[in-house]
## 1
Amino acid sequence: MIIDNFDPFVGQHCETTATGSLLKNLGIGLSEPMLFGIGEGLGFIFWNMKIMNFPFIGGRIKPDVLTQNITRNLNLQLEEEETSSVKKAWQNVVSNIDKEIPVGLKLDCYHLEYFANRTHFAGHYVAMYGYDNQYAYLIDTQQQGGKVKTSLKSLELARNEKGPMSSKNRSYTIQRTKKDYELMNAIRTAVENNANDYLNPPIRNIGYKGILETSVKIKKWFEDSRDVTRDFKTTAMLMEKAGTGGALFRNLYRDFLKESADLLESDQIREAFLEFSKIAGLWTEVASLLDKAGGSSKVGYINQASDILVDLSVKEKRAMELLGNL
């Protein structure tokens, strides 16, 4: 069963691409920056666990929450399913596709056969719009090919994988409700919520406090690293190219603010947009310095990146304070 004339969303970030595809099927066509912004997506985390090969620098809110925020702010109905049963997990998907309802999936992209660079990441999202006896037909990001397919067995392994960020065969669908959304109200709500959450991090490795913390921790990380090249070149790649839209999601949020300022004719949002234009450039510079550190093993690049992170902590706090009370 393959949904006829399914029109995929073309995006750079996996969760907005998957959820955008489901929304497009409902006749809702918003830009990727708008989806990211309405999803209250901007964040920061420096995450280090013993089971991880090296620390993770993230620039968005937790997986799943982005889609939950998008659907709430657009007055849509989100149905989420998780199960430890592979059989039940498959049934959750095909029961919807057989009714021509596309399904969002969270999985580990390591097992997907169309991925050129196979690495474990269990926080990846795709939209599924069909299946046959051999393959599942998926929508992935533009850089992964857009409309793609993978074997049913590989999909099963990807969905059932364990590890950081993994879920139990998570799937979700989105439906309209009787209450339509008002885009400008959704923008105001999302901007204020995102700003206030960002400015009040529960722990010090999150938000602007986390950026400041990272400015210190990357120095120790560099000193203690068993593989400087792997750690810092991979981190730089993840920040710029692994579905973030560049600049650790700051390009997406910058573009959301520009679109929102034009729609709402808001000088306050426009000022924040100008701030994030500078912020995005600095994050790209940080990624470049980490890449150079990984390629040369020279601590000077780490020290430069650390200094910029201190500045970024101040700049992001100030920009989000502009948005906290529209």
## 2
Amino acid sequence: MEPVSPEQIRRLRRRIVQASLIHPPSLRQAYSVLRFACNLGLLSHTWIDGQRAELPGPAPLAPFFAELEALGERALKILEPEVALAMAQRHLGLIHAAERWAKRHWNAAAVNRETGAAKLAVALGGGGGASYIGLGAVDLLDGMGIHPSLLAGASMGSILCAFRARELNYQVESVIEETSDLRADTVMGVSTMKNHYSIPATIRLTLQSALGPFFRNDDGFGMKISDMAIPLRVVVSGLVGDPPRDLDFYQHLLDRSWTGRSVRRLVFNFTRLASEFVFGSTVLSTVALGADELSSGLNVVDAIGFSSSIPGVIHYDVERHDDDAHARITEIMHRHGISRILDGGFSENVPALTCRSALASGVTGQMHTLVLGLDGFASNLLHQPLWVPAQQLLRGQIGRAKMAADHWHSFRQPLSPLKLLPGQHTMRAILQAGREEFATVAAEVQHALEDPRPDYLDFKRRLTRA
């Protein structure tokens, strides 16, 4: 019998959560037992006294997962309480034996931690103004008392994640108020500087002057990624080798009155250039800034600037005299074997895989951390027909990201990607739209984070007495 993969277990577990929510709390105990078994099936490694501890293999639950697989995800999503109860009773001995097996290799505290209440990691996708709606989902979870233990973002998603990561508890309204004075001419300008690390463009991002004041530590210095209250990963794409075209082409692509170019032409140019990087002969690697000591020391505004640097469209580079920043970026590029840094969305627009890698390194202190993927740049022929070709370029990597996530939501009615500075009224409206659209998934996430162990232990006691 082929062992069931972690990706399959996560999908099956989500369907059990969805089925459980259909019914009142009084009928959910058996579903909790099934969720607990799925949690056991996902055990692989943990940390005991600061040391990584491995299991010799998957928990011995093959017959249980074979039955779940035979039912299929569609049937599991509408699983009736009596069927869930019969399944829990049928496999209780097997589940208990698997729990004891895991505790023999680790200890009770480690197994309880890795099968009980989960933590949450949020992967917030890029897509310019289309990303804002995802912040509404994060705000809804915060309002429910669900705070992320890890944030990962690409492009605009990295900017929004950085704002959320500044403090453990925050009010999204404060971010709206703080950034209300931002204008296009304070965030962008015509590039005249030399290019060092990214691929040039006519338009320059001036994020240090525009966003730098929002990322200062108590001493008034620019915050580093390591200064974030919530662990943060900023995804950039690393170019291995030379770009598809000469750098001068990208520098001057939009020289002629870029502010007056038609939207259609701009989107066409973006899609054409993106396809050369995604499907051409170039090689892109995903680099998660904040994943090691070297990149954790980067200025957070520099990190999100590089993550938002689109070849030929908008350009970010380190303009100031900062020996530490230049040394770190040079060493990062050397270690990863890359020649240029560009928009993180080109390699991992919704960084669920980056979240998985961070969890495996112990960033949240437990592997039992759910990954939530939020995608505002999903293909949307009805609301964003002009952007569908660009969205389709990401189809392969989005499929891989979905496999890595425990929960996922693709928003149906985001803002236009070109709406980079929407203003307070529009911002509040799109955040509310995000909250409303995400409400059903938020309920799933809330339930999935709950500790299934009390129900499992009570169920086991009652059956033992019987």
